[in-house]
Design brief:
Blueprint: H1 21-28, E1 34-42, E2 45-52, E3 56-63, H2 64-70
Antiparallel strand pairs: 1-2, 2-3
Length: 74
């Protein structure tokens, strides 16, 4: 599948793991970022993986139908 449009997704925020509260403060202040994003389309869904503060890897799934709804389509 070739994607030609973009949509902004609201990435869920994590809970701060014990011992990393000082790093998580940067997320609340908008300083820290998500790194190494990767997306795979499979079975009408996007599987999105990324690193947060290079400390944990997160994966979440979004249906292509939901992305179309974000864009006001269908």
């Amino acid at each position: 599948m070739h994607f030609t449009r973009m949509a902004q997704l609201d990435v869920p925020g994590p809970e701060a793991p014990e011992g990393f509260e000082s790093i998580w403060k940067k997320f609340h202040e908008g300083i820290a970022s998500l790194q190494y994003p990767h997306v795979i389309e499979h079975d009408k869904h996007l599987w999105i993986a990324m690193s947060r503060a290079k400390l944990q890897t997160e994966v979440f799934c979004v249906s292509l139908d939901d992305i179309d709804k974000l864009r006001g389509e269908k």
